[in-house]
Specification:
Structural class: mainly alpha
Number of strands: 8
Strand content: 5-15%
Largest sheet: 3 strands, antiparallel
Oligomer: single chain
Shape: globular
């Protein structure tokens, strides 16, 4: 017998002990990033104690000490308990992420328990408060599944309402987000008007991981409803809260985008371009006060994304007007936004700040807009081969940005067609293959995109 081989009975005993360890049957999981290296860390936990907009608290072992991680660093949380309802919630959120908005909305409405419902006796539509079955007491809160379903239902309403330009759906999103008197004017037993149980009241003071998301969603919903002064106030409230509660630079960014989103909705495009440029400047000015490397990198990305929002308006305006001057302005702006240009412009900044801005310009969302803008400028000038190189960069490298990828495929086909008309027989065959492959891929991957219909 091998003296180093444990007896089978001992192995069996160890296995039984492992099965008996508290928490072994649970598989809740939190993924977050290290604030200094941005490396992802996965931790399996026995209990998630709370999820607020500031921090997520958990216990790795039963009756163990509470550990917390800033919510701004959390990538994802996977809950294990919930059975069939958990699976339904995961499926509904997945449908929302895949853009199946109506399907997601219908499923999330059932799971959330709130919103307009048909009274089976009267046949009339009645509004059921989201907080109807919440436990009493200010310190008690609904289960996490109710919180998630409520937020994602509001998000589904907003996204579908925005896509379809459906004010009724946007109105319903607002009712789900902001606590108001029930539309019916119904009163409780004490004669007080019943409320919708809106998310921001239900989880007030940031008592939800999605609270900042809900504040941003409320502001955007007000933009969609054309209630611009209220939207401006909502964006300001988000910005003030982001700074006061240190919930991460993402929310300061979302708040700063508000002025541009409102100006765009009003058709004030020059004002919107300037607002997005101001948002980029604001993000750059946040850099000196940020000591965490991962957040510095995020600020760098957000700086360039704000600039690319301005570029996006320039691009759409130039497309619409087919103006050589506007394409030239777009190209110049993009050249000023490249990593090389930013490295030169900010060469006097401390290395960590300069690097964050330079690396931020390499963000796929930023590069996709840049390459499409340059490609369109080249296409307008009849420089078909240069245009093809730009659009193919989006096709090959930045396909994870759907809107820009679809745009690139459409214009790649046009650029390749233009190049084929001027090419020799051998080169013509290559350009025609580029054209046909781009058209085929566009129709296959984005059949409902307006780019596939052009």
């Amino acid at each position: 017998m091998n003296p180093y081989r444990p007896p089978l009975l001992l192995l069996a005993a160890v296995a039984m002990l492992l099965l008996a360890v508290p928490g072994a049957a649970r598989a809740d999981e939190i993924v977050y990033v290290d604030p200094d290296t941005c490396a992802e860390i996965t931790v399996r936990v026995e209990e998630i104690v709370s999820e607020t907009w500031a921090e997520v608290k958990y216990r790795e072992k039963a009756r163990g000490p509470e550990v917390s991680v800033p919510t701004a660093l959390v990538v994802s949380i996977r809950h294990d308990a919930g059975g069939a309802q958990l699976k339904e919630l995961q499926n509904a959120i997945g449908e929302l992420g895949r853009g199946n908005l109506a399907e997601a909305r219908r499923a999330l409405k059932v799971l959330s328990g709130g919103g307009f419902k048909q009274n089976l006796e009267s046949g009339k539509l009645e509004y059921q408060s989201f907080s109807l079955n919440d436990p009493p007491g200010k310190r008690k809160r609904p289960p996490w599944s109710s919180e998630y379903a409520h937020f994602f239902y509001a998000k589904a309403l907003y996204e579908e309402g925005s896509k379809r330009k459906d004010k009724e759906l946007l109105d319903h999103a607002y009712l789900a987000l902001v606590d108001q008197d029930l539309p019916s004017g119904e009163k409780d037993e004490e004669g007080k008007k019943k409320r919708t149980g809106g998310f921001l009241k239900r989880f007030e003071l940031g008592n939800s991981r999605y609270y900042a998301d809900a504040m941003a969603l409320t502001a955007k919903t007000l933009v969609g409803l054309g209630r611009y002064p209220e939207a401006a106030k909502a964006f300001k409230a988000l910005g003030d809260a982001a700074i006061a509660n240190d919930i991460g630079p993402k929310w300061a960014f979302e708040a700063r985008l508000g002025a541009g989103l409102i100006a765009e909705a009003e058709g004030k495009y020059v004002q919107a371009i300037n607002a997005y440029k101001d948002a980029a400047t604001f993000m750059r000015l946040l850099l000196p006060r940020e000591t965490r490397a991962c957040f510095r990198n995020l600020i760098g990305r957000l700086h360039s994304r704000a600039r690319m929002r301005a570029a996006g308006i320039m691009l759409r305006r130039a497309e619409k007007n087919k103006s050589p001057a506007e394409f030239a302005e777009l190209r110049d702006f993009i050249h000023e936004s490249t990593p090389e240009a930013l490295a030169k412009k900010y060469r006097t900044l401390p290395g960590s700040q300069k690097d964050a801005l330079v690396e931020g310009a390499l963000d796929p969302e930023v590069q996709a807009v840049m390459q499409n803008g340059l490609g369109l400028a080249f296409l307008q000038e009849g420089k078909f081969e240069d245009a093809i190189l730009s659009f193919r960069a989006v096709e090959v490298k930045y396909f994870q940005v759907p809107e820009e990828h679809a745009r690139a495929l459409h214009y790649l086909a046009r650029a390749a067609d233009g190049a084929a008309s001027k090419a020799s027989d051998e080169a013509r065959a290559l350009y025609e293959r580029y054209r046909d492959e781009a058209r085929s891929r566009l129709k296959a991957e984005y059949p409902n995109s307006p780019w596939a219909q052009k």
